């Protein structure tokens, strides 16, 4: 499993909030996907009904998962492909290395795979003298920079154009030093040229899968660049790396999920390339891989299925919950410390790596509910975050200040009169302090709330008082 | 115990609490035998002629270019004109699709056409689509001996011939046609690769600025032919 800094979440956040480069990148990022999604769903009147269908398909599949995985494997084998099962990341890495060794592989091209990040396949291959080359432009950039993705569909969204140019100049040292790399077009042309040879000379291509289809034994990838297709078409061996919950019953079910995926992710009607791959090349085909392998990974998912977080297995990795999350938008993806950031990451990461190393993540939410509002498969993310929080509390993982704070709060919150007695004067005081600007620059003893932004002041009356006034 | 058994047993133990294993198998087999359509949006439930227009509108919105010709024999001229307009050489790597075999190529003697897989430095490819989906302007192509997949991805310019009769409203109609053809031709294996193509290759990975042609084609030109 790839290493994690989730346990240092608080320090990560401090770093992220003070990083001007990152803050600028995040401000640029905030508009695009959210805006485009809004337009896309306005143009499809059935969008919300499709979300219901998508949720039903995923829940149905999860409830019949073993049956569909069985049928899937039979169909992969019928098409001439092979299925390998991995209980954890180590086993998946070993299986992939074994296939690479048999193929005599020296270089491996890679399409974008979050499971690959999860099991740190690149490090494992490198250690074993096989060179992995990321081909998705964003993944290529972060591979050159030695970073983890900061977003599940836009892995380099934290990197500025100048930083890309810097990384390219350092990595492509054979090219003329004085060349211009100012414009995005120039960067694009250089990346295209550099990766072209890699695609052609690679011995093995590894891709992830958005879906595995039981009906046909197909793996599906969704990309915009076409890199995944070159990765799975040109080398003589194609390895698909996917986790168990990617299984979907039929072509029609996959189609329904595809209708909500791109619209939720980037706001596209459909991504540029959606490819259904089934087995190796047929005897009469002129191209395509001679071998087709699927490595199916568990890595903690069967435990999630058995526990209170099985709903998370419906996630189709669109990234909408990240794009709409006020916390993600303030701190970026790296602060979460592992592969999956944002609300989906805050639920998934403790499920996959255990709560001890990741208990800060479910705390990092305002529970505003936006993530559930935009989730294409209607995962109740705030509910799941609350479930983790109660486990964190019950397992005594919090520091004493937070723990006692929660204790006192619950005593107050359960007793309206007492609550009023304590809170009303404070609300009045805060409102009075900020009566001109409407916000506070600092509050004694609550530095954390005002360090990086002003605190909006209360209006002067509590909610209960306003409610009573309205009832009159 | 193999890893497969370890994983499957854990799934079974959990799911058995709700429904027994044979019940699950029956439900799964039934869904695969008769796949429900789920929900097909109304968008493309329009006349065939409107579907053609809808296909073109959506394809052009994602930076593909489209044109419409009457007869198959107009294709060589149309190709030459397009290549000239884009300042591209008069050389194409084409699929060996039977439809292209019907074309009178001699009408454009300057146009060089080779068939086979795409390789460097092929600049322009010509393929024939299996279907066009009106609802999003998506082309469907599939691997076959005469249709190598590399033609769709390697060259910088991809030209696709789309017979008008193959434009359907939604993806589900294309799946049905594919299933029907496989049965009719008694083919048991589905094509190795089925490609949905919606516009040329694009990326937003550098500061969210959309740029075309990162790894796949920079240009996607679709020629709709009325009569085949």
Overall geometric form of chain B: elongated
CATH architecture label name of the domain at 6-159 and 203-301 in chain A: 3-Layer(aba) Sandwich
- Please state the CA-atom Rg of chain A, rounded to the nearest Å: 24 Å
The chain-level mean pLDDT of chain A equals: 94
Helix coverage percent of chain B: 25-40%
Strand content of chain A: 5-15%
Shape of chain A: globular
How many H/I helical runs of chain B? 7
CA-CA gap between termini of chain B: 58 Å
CATH superfamily of the domain at 6-159 and 203-301 in chain A: NagB/RpiA/CoA transferase-like
- Tally the helices of chain A: what do you get? 22
Please tag this protein with its features:
heterodimer, A: 472 residues, six-stranded parallel beta sheet, four-stranded mixed beta sheet, 22 helices, globular, B: 228 residues, alpha/beta, Rossmann fold, 32% helix, elongated
Structural summary, described in words:
The complex is a heterodimer of chains A (472) and B (228). Chain A is α/β, with parallel strands linked by helices and 472 residues long. Among the domains of chain A are: 6-159 and 203-301, NagB/RpiA/CoA transferase-like (Rossmann fold, 3-Layer(aba) Sandwich); 402-471, no CATH class. Chain A contains 22 helices and twelve strands. In chain A, the strands form three sheets. In chain A, strands 1-10-7-4-2-3 form a six-stranded parallel sheet, with helices on both faces. In chain A, strands 8-5-6-9 form a four-stranded mixed sheet. In chain A, strands 11-12 form a two-stranded antiparallel sheet. The longest helix of chain A is centred in the first third of the chain and has 23 residues, at 20-42. The radius of gyration of chain A is 24 Å and the shape is globular. Chain B is of the alpha/beta class and 228 residues long. Chain B folds into two domains: 3-33, no CATH class; 42-227, Rossmann fold (3-Layer(aba) Sandwich). The longest helix of chain B has 14 residues, at 3-16. The radius of gyration of chain B is 21 Å and the shape is elongated. Chain B starts with a helix and ends with a strand. Chains A and B meet through helix 2, helix 3, helix 4, helix 8 and helix 10 of A and helix 1, helix 2, helix 6, helix 7 and strand 9 of B.
């Amino acid at each position: 499993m790839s290493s994690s800094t989730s346990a240092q979440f608080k320090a990560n956040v401090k770093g992220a909030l003070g990083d001007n480069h990152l803050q600028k990148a995040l401000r640029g990022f905030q508009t695009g996907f959210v805006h485009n999604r809004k337009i896309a769903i306005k143009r499809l009147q059935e969008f919300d009904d499709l979300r219901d269908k998508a949720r039903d398909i995923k829940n149905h599949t999860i409830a019949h998962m073993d049956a569909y995985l069985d049928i899937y494997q039979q169909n992969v084998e019928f098409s001439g492909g092979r299925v390998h099962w991995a209980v954890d990341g180590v086993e998946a890495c070993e299986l992939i290395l074994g296939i690479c060794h048999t193929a005599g592989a020296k270089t491996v091209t890679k399409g974008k795979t979050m499971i690959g990040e999860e099991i740190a396949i690149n490090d494992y291959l490198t250690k074993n003298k096989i060179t992995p080359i990321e081909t998705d432009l964003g993944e290529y950039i972060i591979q050159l920079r030695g970073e983890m993705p900061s977003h599940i569909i836009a892995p380099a969204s934290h990197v500025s154009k100048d930083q890309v140019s810097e990384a390219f100049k350092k990595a492509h040292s054979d090219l003329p030093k004085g060349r211009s790399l100012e414009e995005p077009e120039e960067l694009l042309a250089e990346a295209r040229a550099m990766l072209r040879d890699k695609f052609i000379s690679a011995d093995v291509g590894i891709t992830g899968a958005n879906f595995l289809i039981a009906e046909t034994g197909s793996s599906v990838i969704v990309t915009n660049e076409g890199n995944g297709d070159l990765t799975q078409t040109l080398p003589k061996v194609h390895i698909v790396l996917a986790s168990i919950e990617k299984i979907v019953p039929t072509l029609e079910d996959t189609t329904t999920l595809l209708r909500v995926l791109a619209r939720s992710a980037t706001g596209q009607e459909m991504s540029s390339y959606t490819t259904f791959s089934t087995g190796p090349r047929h005897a009469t085909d002129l191209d395509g891989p001679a071998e087709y392998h699927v490595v199916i990974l568990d890595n903690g998912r069967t435990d999630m299925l058995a526990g209170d977080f099985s709903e998370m297995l419906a996630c189709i990795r669109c990234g909408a919950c990240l794009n709409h999350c006020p916390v993600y938008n303030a701190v970026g993806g790296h602060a979460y410390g592992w592969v999956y950031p944002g609300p989906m990451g805050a639920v998934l990461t403790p499920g996959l790596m255990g709560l001890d190393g990741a208990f800060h993540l479910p705390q990092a939410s305002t529970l505003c509910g936006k993530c559930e509002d935009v989730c294409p498969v209607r995962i109740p993310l705030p509910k799941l975050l609350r479930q983790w929080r109660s486990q964190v509390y019950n397992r005594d993982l919090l520091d004493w200040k937070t723990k006692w704070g929660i204790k006192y709060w619950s005593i107050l919150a359960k007793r309206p009169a007492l609550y009023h007695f304590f809170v009303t004067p404070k609300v009045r005081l805060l409102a009075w302090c900020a009566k001109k600007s409407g916000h506070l620059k600092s509050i004694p003893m609550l530095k954390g709330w005002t360090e990086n932004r002003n605190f909006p002041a209360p209006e002067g009356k509590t909610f209960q008082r306003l409610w009573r006034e309205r009832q009159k | 115990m193999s890893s497969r058994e370890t994983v499957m047993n854990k799934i079974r133990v959990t799911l058995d609490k709700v429904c027994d294993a044979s019940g699950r198998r029956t439900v799964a087999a039934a869904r695969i035998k008769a796949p429900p359509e789920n929900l097909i949006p109304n968008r493309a439930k329009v006349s065939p002629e409107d579907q053609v227009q809808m296909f073109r509108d959506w394809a052009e919105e994602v930076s593909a270019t489209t044109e419409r010709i009457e007869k198959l024999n107009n294709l060589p001229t149309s190709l030459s004109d397009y290549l000239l307009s884009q300042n591209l050489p008069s050389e194409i790597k084409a699929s060996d699709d039977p439809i292209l075999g019907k074309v009178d190529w001699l009408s454009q003697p300057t146009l060089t056409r080779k068939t086979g897989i795409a390789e460097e430095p092929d600049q322009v490819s010509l393929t024939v689509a299996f279907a066009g989906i009106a609802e999003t302007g998506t082309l469907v192509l599939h691997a076959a001996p005469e249709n190598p997949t590399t033609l769709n991805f390697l060259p910088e310019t991809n030209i696709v011939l789309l017979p008008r009769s193959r434009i359907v409203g939604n993806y589900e109609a294309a799946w049905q046609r594919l299933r029907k053809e496989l049965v009719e031709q008694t083919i048991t294996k589905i094509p190795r690769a089925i490609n949905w193509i919606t516009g040329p290759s694009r990326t937003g990975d550098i500061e969210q600025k959309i740029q075309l042609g990162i790894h796949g084609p920079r240009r996607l030109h679709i020629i709709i032919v009325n009569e085949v």
